[in-house]
């Protein structure tokens, strides 16, 4: 009875926390813009088969009657040399990019964070040295170059592109979490848990990790933009997605041959890339301001 | 009685935050006569630093707002002063020593740079701003605060000095110009007892020598005893009692002052009092009437509805409490 | 070395040195004392004296460089990871800064549940919650605080949660490292009152560390004063304050602010403290206090004095009293 009322109070307090977070977030109009853009892109990506005007254009499709049309009422972004609707392909391209970004993050965030936690907690011991020196090696290599190198060794394809980006990107999470974990390790609340007899697992995941969530979330949002950009760069040079998969980078590359007369083939995908990157960056800044994190 | 040096009249300070308005200061009245040493005692969160920041106009104006009240320095309202007048007041009129000397000094500049900047800001004439003159004055003021080897101190960074030395540097920065009013916000609170004792005694000597008025702020009663002529006790944004220092320690009248004195551990042994029940009110929804009434054992019905004004109970002794409404 | 019959904790020649780039920091440099069961032993000193290091070494955050810590007859001079699990229930600590001793990302309920979970104190979830409610009621905090986060409650209340956490495992010995230094007088009075009441109720022994001598007077039954890693004087509380022998004790006592003339008359004659507190990296040779001592003699700069018993239960480390 008493506990029920306490539980109700907690839920209303949590709701109030959400509202307070929203208030803080909405102070900055740019964060709102970022949120709106990301929502639009997410919507488009999730529902592309249903909202795109010509879903066939996303796959193998040829229609020379409609080829190379400038933007018009029937094809809002025009068509490319095969007659495929650009707008549809842009929608599917977004879907594709987001999927790639999400997959990469799903791979690197757990791995990178866990390694950072362990290295930070065992700071000064051999485990720390081993993990962090490996991390240093990977950080020293520029991500794009590394991704290009990996991709060129393996056969070009989306799967290998994602693998390449993951290899290039994971150390940043390790380093960021390492910094936080090693400074938190000597805080009194961690010491209090240790001297009471808490297990290592508990301390890593229940005491230290919750304090890292805010910077991790910020970084994930900002990284989404970066990963999509690198992915597009890889496709631009032909190492990522292969035709006919609609990928924003390869669309820009294909269309560059026809510039400047058939400008719409390159410009709209490029514009989409810019919008995605901008949206996630603004959103990431907004998250950082709201949660007060020191994101990477 | 001559005109007071500083007079705060019915000051209200509010802060706009998520969820409403924090009504922190609720009609603060405070006076300092020229040459007087006044203490301001209150626990954490009662609004003493906010009051002093309002005097120096250091409050960030959104979210802070001052809907009512005046702060008169030598008869002129600081709140309405223009930028030029304000600068003049900050240079030659009032100076403030902040609580944490480590935070008040910029860690990436040497003491010399910071001190000489302070000297230069207080001087408007070209000749006094010459390099050697500035350096000489800086060394002179460091000697005044009993810092050994002032030339070396000028070259040091704040991190190379101990806490006590940093506090002395902050005091010297405040004394660099001939000021009429010195505000010392909990000087030495973050330092050890023996060092704090040295600092407080130093402040006392300097103040005697220069005949400056002082406002000494503290959350502990012991620190202001022996250093002040008059004492204000503050609670939740308003003054509850004002008296000559010896009178307050001998006969505290307001229930809060009595509670504070009873709760202070004494060298005579005999245990500590019970403390004061409850906690300081939320400024977002402060209690109506007297803000202390929820914690007061002697609360009467009138206390819940009306805010008590200062009632005179003796020579220089006033209490803001309805218990003394009809005191003769 | 005096070992009392009922001593629950005995420290023998404890040393804790830290090896840093600037040199060896002798934070604790050979101290010995014991705490009787059910008493409050006070440890007083300024910054750099090593008093907090003593607490951290006893609780197991640090491994002693040398010396022994004996708890109920058992040698426990190791880090906490190497100690017996059951021992961690018996000795608890309350830290100085309430702001950092509670994890800001965990709710009060989770914070209080942790020791219960670790030591399997309650059988199931429901009885755990009941115990948490019981703990909150013990420290007079509203039960609704259970789901709050530390940032939502005041400093005094955070410290009460820290005390509740320490009591959760039903300990016998609690180290209190300046538990009220960051708090106001009225909150301090409440907390100290609570601590004294718990001591009587649960027969607890306290090692109480503070720099506030007036507080110590009202809390401790015996007091030891530390300077630069060594103990200068140990005595019963009344003896310590009535008849301080070591010049440092006298200096400290003469500097404290008091609020009545009665107390003023109890203070020893004013000794103006000179100079700065040296850092534990540069400990002066001979007696570590001789640079600031108003009663310095020739021998003080050459030889370090040893603890001598001047009267029953009153020991001093000073050449003025060595026979």
Amino- and carboxy-terminal Cα gap of chain B: 23 Å
Elements of chain B, N to C (H/E): EEEHEEHEHHHHHEHEHEEHHHEE
Mean pLDDT of chain B: 85
**Cα gyration radius of chain B (Å):** 21 Å
Order of helices and strands of chain C: EEEHEEHEHHHHEHEHEEHHHEE
Q: Which secondary-structure class do the elements of chain C indicate?
A: alpha/beta
Assign an overall shape of chain B.
globular
Low-confidence stretches of chain B: none
End-to-end separation of chain C in angstroms reads: 17 Å
Question: What is the helix fraction of residues of chain C, given as a range?
Answer: 25-40%
Unreliable stretches of chain C (pLDDT < 50, length at least 5) are: none
Quaternary status = heterotrimer
Fraction of residues in helix of chain B: 25-40%
Kindly report the average pLDDT value of chain C: 87
Please work out how many helical segments of chain B DSSP would assign.
12
Largest beta-sheet details of chain C: 8 strands, mixed
Q: In total, how many beta strands of chain C?
A: 12
Number of alpha- plus pi-helical segments of chain C:
11
Compute the CA-based radius of gyration of chain C: 20 Å
Count the strands of chain B?
A: 12
Major sheet details of chain B: 8 strands, mixed
